[in-house]
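Now read this:
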Amino acid sequence: MATMVETPPPPPPPPPNPNSLAPPTPAAEPPSPQGPWLWARRPSIRLTSEFDSDSSIFFHKISCKFFDSLAKLKLSFHNNNDGEIFDPQLGFISKHLSLHYDLQNHNALIKGCFDVGSRLHFNAAHDVKAQQGEVTMVADLADPGYKFELLSVVPAAGFPKATLKFPLGEISLEEKEEEEVKKTLSINGILQDQILNGVFSAQFKDDDLKLRYLYKDEQMSFIPSISLPSNAVSFAFKRRFGPSDKLSYWYNLDSNYWSTVYKHTVGKEYKFKAGYDSEVRLGWASLWVGDEEGTAKSAPMKMKVQFMLQVPQDDVHSSALMFRVKKRWDI
């Protein structure tokens, strides 16, 4: 019987010669004719339309972002049931410069802003047709929460308005001019601080002073206030009966007018509100589909709808049902 002889494995390949030339690298593809400032694809277009049955007016807004969202172009206008277009506005908006042009009145509003370092900020606005504008300088002071602001109108008509903002409020000093009275300096401001379990605030403007106290916990809010020198006293009371139900009540002791609102929510998308206002003697109810405070983008199907029923106390037969619709399309 023949015996089998094992064949030795083939020798390993020789190591590469370090002096040999490397294979040539393929040439890079020529640059695309579309440069970095040209669109590689069409920018998305956003169309938002809104209709109010009370005024029977449509409002439309078309916008798109370009240059990798560095700027936005916006066109807005109103139209009625007869198809008449009015109040057209064209806007160019970027981080440091914005231009709003009124196509109907042939007027432009220019706004700009820039920073000098990290603590000095400038904002400017100019109305071309009125030849008026304003310039604002805001300086962040060394201590956090403190800012100093100077606002001057253009052309200058006096001293600029100076405002100092700090954690407990703000104080403003500006020049005031009244008929047949020389220019005087007016001091306005608001101060607030934590007292007991609430926040006390004092708001003063010229000769008027309003004192207000806010007490709030997880279920209840109580807000009394008094205005001096008129001695007008009012208070607000808010009671939460759970995460979805809230009742609010306002009463003015000076005029005996009062109003109340009940609110019920289902998540963030549905809200029902009903109330009464004794000053206008009107009861009403409102239903929101879509977040009342949010935009149409976050609403279901990118659409917000509001229905409102108004019932006058003195003439129930003239009750009115109104609605408002806001819809957004991304094209």
Remarks:
- Confidence is low (pLDDT under 50) at residues 1-7, 18-24, 31-39.
- DSSP finds no helices and 22 strands in the chain.
